[in-house]
Design goal:
Layout lengths: L1 H10 L6 E3 L5 E4 L2 H12 L5 H10 L3 E4 L2 E3 L37
Antiparallel strand pairs: 1-2, 2-4, 3-4
Helix pairs in contact: 1-2
């Protein structure tokens, strides 16, 4: 998707504010405020760090620690994996629907 491509370009853009973890498997944001001010507008139509993070979540990126996210198909030097990253479908937040009443609620 467009978001994934733009994020790939941004993370590979040699910015101080964001980049790769040492092993190249995680996105690292070093300075969210400066990222929003100086970097996001170059790649996206907004300057909202929280919006960018929310969209990462929609594309199944998982937060590993503050300012770091991982997705198995988003890795340094492996752009051929990017097409596997798709936006989750459905309503957020999703609640699992059970085919039968949950027994835990029958006390």
């Amino acid at each position: 998707g467009e978001f994934v491509s733009a994020t790939w370009e941004m993370i590979n853009g040699n910015f101080f504010e964001c980049g790769w973890s040492a092993d190249g498997t995680e996105i690292v944001v070093r300075n969210p405020e400066r990222l929003a001010e100086n970097v996001l507008p170059r790649y996206f139509r907004h300057t909202q760090y929280s919006s960018w993070v929310r969209t990462l979540n929609h594309y199944s990126f998982r937060k590993t620690r503050p300012g770091q996210w991982v997705n198995p198909h988003f890795q340094r030097d492996k752009p051929e994996l990017l097409h596997h990253i798709t936006r989750k479908v459905g309503v957020f937040p999703s609640t699992p629907t059970l085919p039968y009443p949950c027994p835990c609620s029958e006390f």
